[in-house]
Design goal:
Organism (chain A): Corchorus olitorius
Strand content of chain B: under 5%
InterPro entries (chain A): P-loop_NTPase, PRK, PRK/URK
Subcellular location (chain A): Plastid, Chloroplast
Oligomer: heterodimer
Number of domains of chain B: 2
Helix content of chain B: 55-70%
Catalytic activity (chain A): D-ribulose 5-phosphate + ATP = D-ribulose 1,5-bisphosphate + ADP + H(+)
Largest sheet of chain B: none
Number of strands of chain A: 10
Enzyme class (chain A): transferase
Shape of chain B: rod-shaped
Strand content of chain A: 15-25%
Radius of gyration of chain A: 21 Å
Number of helices of chain A: 12
Structural class of chain A: alpha/beta
Structural class of chain B: mainly alpha
Order of helices and strands of chain B: HHHHHHH
Chain lengths: ~375, ~130
Amino acid sequence: MAAVCTVYTTQSLNSSCSISTPTKSHLGFNQKQVVFYSTGKRSSKRSGGSLITCSAGDSQTVVIGLAADSGCGKSTFMRRLTSVFGGAAEPPKGGNPDSNTLISDMTTVICLDDYHSLDRNGRKEKGVTALDPRANDFDLMYEQVKAIKSGVAVEKPIYNHVTGLLDPPELIKPPKILVIEGLHPMFDERVRDLLDFSIYLDISNEVKFAWKIQRDMAERGHSLESIKASIEARKPDFDAYIDPQKQYADAVIEVLPTQLIPDDNEGKAQPSHGFHAEGSSLALTLASNSPTALTVTSAMRLDELIYVESHLSNLSTKFYGEVTQQMLKHADFPGSNNGTGLFQTIVGLKIRDLYEQIIASKAATPLEATKA
Amino acid sequence: MATLSSLNLVTPRAVASVPDSTKAGPVKVSCLNQPWKRVSQLGSRRMQVLRPVRAAPDRISEKVEKSIKEAEEACSGDPASSECVAAWDEVEELSAAASHARDRQKANSDPLENYCKENPETDECRTYDN
């Protein structure tokens, strides 16, 4: 019980976050030529397989995977990411009001829960969770993501989170950027190989608990016990099927609990000079090849963010102040003042950068082909 | 005939229950006899047509509450049983859905914003650069 109380008092929990690029640390967070090189390598790997995939040429969709457990900020991240590409992301017009899809000019975000093979009743009968691969249809997921990637529209099922049933399918047309978000974007090797970039939101158990308290305590029927019981019951499946995907991610956003000033129980804002010091160390690590690119260990104030931004380099912004602008635009989103929002925004900018480089390299490829 | 077709729009079910409405003869449309009902019918109908209704957060909240009770029951025997784990997973799924529904409600709380999303070309939604 003591443990529960301790965590409960950490509502003003300061999070320390770090982005790390575990295995492919050269992939998105370093100098441009490195990124360019790695995407080039990837596409040559793809075409070197068997046939040269000249499908639909330059209209090919860039596919991004976002993996995280439920309640770990996927939706917020998606809203920040689509905002970086401009335009508001909306559910499909005139479609199923319970659709999980978000569409904007550039991006379409689909939720992988739509590929549940067992609906809520089916899972209950068989005693499996949604985290369990047996509750998901990876064959269909692969077929459809592959089809969209090669420019073919698909009729994707809709998993209705309210009723727990599978609704009639909706038409998904190939967008410029397809984001697949959910529990298992990197679980199946075939799906994984279709991803141009992948992100894993690595939320430690303590932080997960704190976030779910914030999310659920106001909900009737919930208590600290129910929130804890739910996390603990799901943990074995989470550890078995979700967490291992981290190793395949191009970027991992890790959120760990910290108590920066142990005596500061009021959760006062941190002194700004300390903040700036963090900022300059950020710039250093971002430019180096060290796996840990960026660490924020501080509560953040949005009105001081522009100073942080001025100390960061290699952000892939289009103009000075773009990070701050994006953050202020969504100041009401969760994570705006604890570093996670900043990280999500920066990863969003990196993905935009990557997208533009993929497009540019595709435009360059036909020229090389004619030369050869 | 023009009046008839506009009535068809308002009460499609009433018309559908008439065996053959194209034949001349008395058309039994309920709202002709009860014109005072028409206004309210039109009103409620129109709300539905304009905006497909997502599940209200209240409805999901009830489900969350129910699922927690069920999970506690399922776990009373063996807390490590697969029924227990699946039941808590359902709680998580519904809690997340309830939270998303609340967020959406917050985001859609401005009636003018909502109207302009669907009707950006109308006068009241026009924006000017200068």
